[in-house]
Amino acid sequence: MLALTAGDPSGIGPDIALKAWLERDKRAVPPFLLISDSALMAARARKLGLDVPIIETDVDGAARHFNDALPLLPLANAFLDTPGAPNSANAAGIIESIDRAVAMTQDGLTSAVVTLPIAKKPLYEAGFGFPGHTEYLAHLANAATGRDDIAVMLLAGPDLRTVPVTIHIPITEVPAALTTELIVRVGAIAARDLRQRFGIAAPRLAVLGLNPHAGEGGSIGLEDVETILPAIEMLRQDGIDAFGPSPADTMFHARARANYDVAICMYHDQALIPAKLLAFDEAVNVTLGLPFVRTSPDHGTAFDIAGTGKARPDSLISALKLAATLAENDQRSR
Length: 334
Known about the structure:
- This protein is of the alpha/beta class.
- Helices cover about 40% and strands about 15% of the residues.
- The longest helix is centred in the C-terminal third of the chain and has 20 residues, at about 315-334.
- It starts with a strand and ends with a helix.
- The mean pLDDT is about 95.
């Protein structure tokens, strides 16, 4: 059983959760337990004209009910039902849903966490102190284990996997944030999880350059030579098949993609643009480095189409399927 968080209820999260449940037989959607507000979900189903019975239940009852009704674990913090209009008053419920999904998965009650999209601005307005989902999940994991691990974002599509070394920071801050140690740490986590959860025995890492043409030997910036190249050498010394730094503009066509299992990218858009270009409706956001499996659709809240019926559940269905596969692989490898 997968734990599905509520996401921002003013976005398309409720819409695609309802549609994913309706596709459960046709598209072999694995069973999930939604942690949300039952009144809001029922109202959204009515608004969209979807015949989705909703039943409040716990983890034990979720599998029993999934075929006949959408199983829902109710929140203590109710949501305001404002499709298309994010409200900071919903922050408590959004965070509660994430907390409970992680706790249930860490306790072994659910096999993985799948998160519906959140918007950062209303959370920030309510005092949320983390850049995004990925960083908050790392905080929850470290609070439970007492470790200081980092979480790594991976975008996984049918034809490409990418990992950004730096994520939600301004582009002007990327060069200073990039360090050899950070690149090594991210690369090592990616290689480990590709082996353990994706079942790739010897992952091949293509490490991209930061500057145009990977710096042209230092003539277009020194980061590629002084920061990235030493990281690649250290990864190789640790037995990881890593190569580069490679110019980003030559690494995403079909022939290049055949030579690696993941592209280690230096900043957010360098990783996410090609991933979404190749598989916008199918790509999945996977968090590596956590003691539990977490996936998410690769898109945002799409407030502009919330409650209109236009949202497609494809990426969520891919996220649910991949979460089930990764959790199974992870359990088998232990």
